[in-house]
């Protein structure tokens, strides 16, 4: 199944806040209608797990096949399967670029990576799913190669809080730089989700 390319506010109304997908929010009237509709219908246990899986998938912009692959990797790793799953998604290059404030959303970060604007340890990496490691240095190519609109988006997105496992630095005349200090912890993940529901959803497939 390919990535979702439809209207993002439609997903926000159905799945609530998805900070990685868009920085837009639905208005209070639409949110109230969606809440009333969800209360009026009885949701099965399968439906609850499906909704959690959809929230995780759409927030990080992964395909169904990719998410299933991450669940299988997480099952073989030490520690909590749900927490390892979130860490695998958080350490993707497109998400790291987003979390460093170099892009306003994960889809925008993926576009930067695909267009070869992102360097990892001074080497161009154009694979959004590339798994970043401890001490990886993330930089953007020369600002002259970026459009003025893209530079404005980067400047705006830098205002948000950088998680503890990342360090961001930028000075006038220099390209922005980000350093991966370690593995993302559960507290630094800004998506409100019960990851165990996602693991349970895939329990028969992984």
Automatic annotation (TrEMBL):
Small ribosomal subunit protein uS4 N-terminal domain segment(s): 3-90
Places the protein is found: Plastid, Chloroplast
Keyword Ribosomal protein among UniProt keywords: yes
GO cellular component, one term: small ribosomal subunit
Alphabetic keyword roster: Chloroplast, Plastid, Ribonucleoprotein, Ribosomal protein, RNA-binding, rRNA-binding
Keyword Ribonucleoprotein: yes
A molecular function GO annotation: rRNA binding
Superkingdom of the organism of origin: Eukaryota
Gene3D superfamilies: Ribosomal Protein S4 Delta 41, Chain A, domain 1, RNA-binding S4 domain
Main location: plastid
Role noted for this protein: One of the primary rRNA binding proteins, it binds directly to 16S rRNA where it nucleates assembly of the body of the 30S subunit.
Family: Belongs to the universal ribosomal protein uS4 family.
NCBIfam families membership: PRK05327.1, rpsD_bact
Record protein name field: Small ribosomal subunit protein uS4c
């Amino acid at each position: 199944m390919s990535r979702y390319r439809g209207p993002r506010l439609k997903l926000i109304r159905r799945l609530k806040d998805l900070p990685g997908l868009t920085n837009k929010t639905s208005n209070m009237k639409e949110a109230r209608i969606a809440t009333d509709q969800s209360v009026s219908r009885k949701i099965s246990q399968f439906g609850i797990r499906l909704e959690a899986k959809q929230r995780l998938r759409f927030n990080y912009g992964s395909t169904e096949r990719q998410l299933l692959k991450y669940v299988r990797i997480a099952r073989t790793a030490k520690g909590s399967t749900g927490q390892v799953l979130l860490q695998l998604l958080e350490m993707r290059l497109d998400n790291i670029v987003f979390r460093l404030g170099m892009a306003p959303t994960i889809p925008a970060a993926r576009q930067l990576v695909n267009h070869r604007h992102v360097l990892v340890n001074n080497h161009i990496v154009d694979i959004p799913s590339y798994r970043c490691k401890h001490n990886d240095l993330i930089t953007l190519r020369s600002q002259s190669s970026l459009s003025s609109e893209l530079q404005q988006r980067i400047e705006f997105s830098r205002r948000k809080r950088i998680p503890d496992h990342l360090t961001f630095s930028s000075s006038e005349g220099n390209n922005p730089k980000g350093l991966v200090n370690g593995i993302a912890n559960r507290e630094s993940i800004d998506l409100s989700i019960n990851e165990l529901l996602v693991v349970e959803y895939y329990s028969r497939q992984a």
